Amino acid sequence: MTNAPVKVAVTGAAGQICYSLLFRIASGSLLGPDQPVELRLLEITPALKALEGVVMELDDCAFPLLSSVHIGDDPNDVFEGVNLAMLVGARPRSKGMERSDLLEANGAIFTAQGKALNDHAADDVKVLITGNPANTNALIAMRNAPDIPAERFNALTRLDHNRAVAQVAAKAGVPVTEVTHMTVWGNHSATQYPDLFHTEIGGRNAAELIDDQAWIENEFLPTVQKRGAAIIEARGSSSAASAANATVEHMRDWVLGTPEGDWVSMSVPSDGSYGVQEGIISSFPCTVTDGEYSIVQGLEIDDFSRAKIDASVAELVEERDAVTSLGLI
Ligand code: NAD
Ligand code: LMR
């Protein structure tokens, strides 16, 4: 093994998502079979004992790629020199709560962590926010880290993307590998817009092939938009293994590149593409080459899609205004 370890920070490391995520990272699912990793794990003080137990389990896997594990409750220490940061730690939504209820509770976490990344992370750091409300938490972290280029802050809508792919594959009776060019636009919330008008099934337009606007509007969209709530209702707690999987896939594609001839959904700082207001972090179709993402340009947006994208963007603007008045950005 000749590669120097990549330093990967993960927050909320004793929580549900990380109980899956950390083992995926350490086993090589994130950066491939030749890249050692150093895990740097952040928790709040009362959770450090539980985290020690998780570290014992990481040790007991004897992962060849795991060079070391460092844990702590101080972001200034844990984020020292990190190349990749996965910010998962936040209070999850419980039954009946909307994501907006979490803005105040979780916003403060991301001001402190944005500042700590600004002061201590490596120059090439990439930061992915999974903790909810993910898009606006990413905005808070980004705005509190003025020395890190804004485009290094992403939020997770890959889980929504994967959910949408799975629903379409089931409807069409094809393997998920046949479904490409999926786009989730907007916020990781019930206003998100999974767009079937550019999606392809076996290379053919998905909306045309399915040819069932009632299914798209009355079944597909609400199923994907409310999937998080459905899982909370069924499991009694929010999605964990699938969220960990999506977190790995987003960061892996951001580092190693998106599949040839396809794109993925990533929440990135808007540059005004598709009329999405600059200054928010919104989901777009993206490709990645050499570690840099680009928003796919030139897709035609019809009136139906326009209204859906605008509604989700309006929610993100409201969230941004709310955290501005809370003094978080
Ligand atoms: P969890 O409650 O099991 O774990 C969260 C952990 O974060 C806890 O161990 C807690 O101690 C820790 N934490 C809290 N404040 C922290 C801080 N300041 N620094 C470091 N750690 C801190 O929750 P979970 O199920 O792992 O979910 C984590 C977050 O991910 C939630 O906000 C959840 O809503 C969100 N989530 C997002 C998506 C998505 O697609 N974007 C999907 C699922 C869950
Ligand atoms: C999800 O989409 O599963 C998570 O964001 C949990 C939630 O609060 O919906």
UniProtKB/TrEMBL annotation:
Q: Where does NAD(+) bind?
A: 12-18, 106, 113, 130-132
Q: Name one GO molecular function term.
A: L-malate dehydrogenase (NAD+) activity
Q: What class of enzyme is it?
A: oxidoreductase
Q: Quote the catalytic residue positions.
A: 188 (proton acceptor)
Q: PROSITE patterns recorded for this chain?
A: MDH
Q: Which InterPro entries match?
A: L-lactate/malate_DH, Lactate/malate_DH_C, Lactate/malate_DH_N, Lactate_DH/Glyco_Ohase_4_C, Malate_DH_AS, Malate_DH_type2, NAD(P)-bd_dom_sf
Q: Which SUPFAM superfamilies does its entry note?
A: LDH C-terminal domain-like (SSF56327), NAD(P)-binding Rossmann-fold domains (SSF51735)
The reaction(s) annotated as catalysed by this protein in its Swiss-Prot or TrEMBL entry are:
(S)-malate + NAD(+) = oxaloacetate + NADH + H(+)
Q: Which residue range or ranges hold the Lactate/malate dehydrogenase N-terminal domain?
A: 6-149
The EC number(s) this enzyme carries: 1.1.1.37
The UniProt keywords, alphabetically, are: NAD, Oxidoreductase, Tricarboxylic acid cycle
Q: Which residues form the Lactate/malate dehydrogenase C-terminal domain?
A: 157-323
Pfam families assigned? Ldh_1_C, Ldh_1_N
Q: Name one GO biological process term.
A: malate metabolic process
Q: What does this protein do?
A: Catalyzes the reversible oxidation of malate to oxaloacetate.
What HAMAP family is this protein classified in? Malate_dehydrog_2 (MF_01517)
Membership in a protein family? Belongs to the LDH/MDH superfamily. MDH type 2 family.
The protein in question is named: Malate dehydrogenase
Species annotation: Auraticoccus cholistanensis
Recorded name of the encoding gene: mdh
